[in-house]
Amino acid sequence: PLGAIEGMSDRPVDVGVGYQLERARPSDGDSRFVHGPYLELDGYAIPAKKTGASVRVGARGTFDLLLANYDYERHVGAGGMLAALVEFVGYGHSEFASRDGDTATAGITGGELSIGAFLGASYRNLGAQSYWGAVIGVTVRLPFVAGVVCCYTGPSSSSSSSDSDDSYGSDGSGAGSASSGGSGGGGHTPAQPSPSRTPARPSQD
Fold this sequence. Notes:
The chain is mainly beta.
């Protein structure tokens, strides 16, 4: 956890907790799975540099609580490990932001980015059995990341374009109606027939 604090890369010690699962073969020859939590303590004879990439060298020790089920019983035990440790370490801090469609993401990253290896020996005491083992492993530390994801609910560019097209179509239709009305208003009133004349009656002798 101390790796998330800027300026702590050159610390002489580090602590951690975790959970492990291993396949053990005690003196009875039966292979079984053993698991449980552990407490870890690292000490560095050559600490990393405060800034920039560097190498640190030290030792790692653990105290393990062991759990296993075999012979139709649940067994509880304890153990530990002592190993030599080498890590390549770098510290970084950055901000990030992105937008994809209606979703926006923003956040920060900070802390150590490291990869290393350890080699050592372990001792286990589980039930009536006790055994030693050789241990080799890889360590990876990742920076701390914090961020938020937000959904944008406002109008998108496609809907704005659609609204613009609809508005343009309505204006054109209105203009057409006005033009049609103008044509009707400008027409001539048809001439009405003149009244017919009464035919002259013939004179009587």
